[in-house]
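Entry — protein

Goal — fold tokens:
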Amino acid sequence: MNQADKTQLFYELHGVTQLVRTHFDRRATRFELTRAQWRALKSIGRFEGISQAELAEYLDMEPIPVGRVIDRLEKADFVERRADPDDRRRWRLYLKPKSQPVLEEMDVIVDGLRDDALRGVKRADIDTVMRVLAQLKQNLSAFDGVADADTMNQTRGKS
């Protein structure tokens, strides 16, 4: 694979991700939730009892903006904060009953979007893409330890 193909692969991955987000946003406008709010709501549903700090890390957001998102979701009666029994400085997040119909409808939207996006794609092609993505993820995850060693070696070489 030449350099242009490698570059194009990553542009395509980014472009597809961006299109999925855009189309989901369009289909979910009736909920009057921002993308950050629906991502937080869905994540709290997946990891009920998650702390605000853990949610911020999971969403790849800073803690203060996540706190504001939770403030709005709490005000709308979608989530509640409960003090962590082991650490009173930490808040745990839980869904309130009002959030269930919204989450169920979000799942319907996601299923429809997924079906629309995959229309005409063969099962064998999906399997191939999944294998490639798993390999990319494995390769990138391996950098966590290697990158630190490389950075240290480069720093030592410059001194």
About this structure: Residues 147-159 have pLDDT under 50 and may be disordered. DSSP finds six helices and two strands in the chain. The first strand starts at residue 79 and ends at 84. The CA atoms of residues 50 and 98 lie 19 Å apart.
